[in-house]
Amino acid sequence: MFKGLKDARRRMTETVLAKVGASERTTDPNYDAHVAKFDVMIADMNECGAALYDADMNECGAALHSYLMKQKSMFSDAEELAKSLDRIFDDNLRMTDWPDVDCEMKQCHVAPDYKSKMDVLANVLRSSVSTVSSEHALDPLRACIAKVSPEIEALKAERNIKLTDYDSYRRRLKEKEAKKEQLEAAGKGDTPAAAELQIEIEKFQKKVQSGLEEYTYVNQKTKADVVEAKRQHDQLMDQLIITTIVCQAELFANAAAQLESIIDTMPEDRVRDIRAKVHEYVKQGGVRPAPPAEKSKLMKGLDVFTGKALPSDYSKSPGNASTAATDDITPVKAVARPVSNPSAPPAPPSTASASSSSFTATKANPFESGDPFEEDDAGGGNPFGGDARGPPPMPPSAPPAPPASSGGANMVEALFDHEAEEEDELNFSVGDMVEVIDRPDGGWWRGRCHGKEGLFPCNYVKS
């Protein structure tokens, strides 16, 4: 017991000394590479093997589990559909309480056959394929993981203990040899202390040799077992992919054969038409989603008014020049831009229509009269009015501008895209992080983004 505690203390001390660089650590890059690859390999095997029984796995494993579960659900749903169709056709065929009306359905003979075949596909074929997948691929893979992973982990732990012991013996041997050299340098090489020290040196020389042999054995065995695990992994993964693909092929081929036998009893012209439609979509690369419906101008105005979109989001293409002037609405900055010298006061508005630096909207509600995107005298196509270079409205849903200060640099997040209109302005996109360098009064700050420095409106960002 006491020896075990002593060993544990010695190993802990050696581990700490190695971490702080006070003890030379024995390394084996080849071992490190083997173990790193082994850990990745086990994770990959777990993704494929364990995922069949555990849905809380990462992407690959979850996909395999989901595929098998949805496959079962798909065939079960198809079986239920066949049962419903059989019932409907049978009820209509036997219908006698609908006066002066006969059943004109021509495929009544198909429904019971379809029901029968889907029962076989769902309860015989699918379950057989699933069982083969488990017995010949997934179960062997799981068994390998359950056996190999703990064995390798135990060897890794034992190897680390042997390595720590070996390094500890080497360090202590060097310390004793250094002490003996000091005694000899001081002319005390023939003293009893030197003799006792020599006995200790010989004892640790034997420990170092024994420790090296034990460490080397476990180190080599661990690497050899990892290599053997890799060989088993390769064989099992080959078997897994072969089994999976063959089982899928058998499932769908047998299902197709069963259904084709029913199709042979159906009208050839109608079958041919349906097949042609399917082939047409396949030839064009599948069914492409329909483009979203164009929003009405009322809905566009509502989006802009509520801050869900910018006016520029609804700009017309250059080819439609007749409406571009009224619909291409660009968000403008909320404050006047300063001149090149940041310390100077902001430049005055560029036009006479802007008489102050405060926000004044010519149309507070874009729905008060007519279409918010129609041109008016005050706004020239901007539903909120104002001039593009004067004191414009705030960006849609923009928060109040942060208080100006002369504080140091800090990071803020862009709420809107900002495109530089002058050479000394800063470009950034929504979500970009901007480093604030200076916050002069006037609403324009100086910052840095993507390695470039320039001015930007402070109400386009948030802290």
Task: Summarize the structure in words.
The protein has helices at residues 2-19, 29-49, 59-93, 110-185, 192-263, 268-283, 297-306, 321-327; strands spanning 410-414, 433-438, 444-449, 452-457, 461-462. The chain has 463 residues and is mainly alpha-helical. Strand 2 and strand 3 (444-449) form a beta hairpin. Helix 1 packs across helix 4 and helix 3 packs antiparallel against helix 4. The longest helix is centred in the N-terminal third of the chain and has 76 residues, at 110-185. It is flat and about 130 Å long.
Short account of what is shown:
This protein has 463 residues and is mainly alpha-helical.
Content of β-strand: 5-15%
Q: How many individual helices?
A: 8
Q: What's the count of strands?
A: 5
Instruction: Give the overall average pLDDT.
Output: 75
* Largest sheet geometry: 5 strands, antiparallel
Fraction of residues in H or I helices:
55-70%
Overall morphology: flat
- Strand order in the largest sheet: 4-3-2-1-5
The stretches of 5 or more residues where confidence is low (pLDDT under 50) are 50-62, 317-393, 396-408
**What gap, in angstroms, lies between the N and C termini?**
61 Å
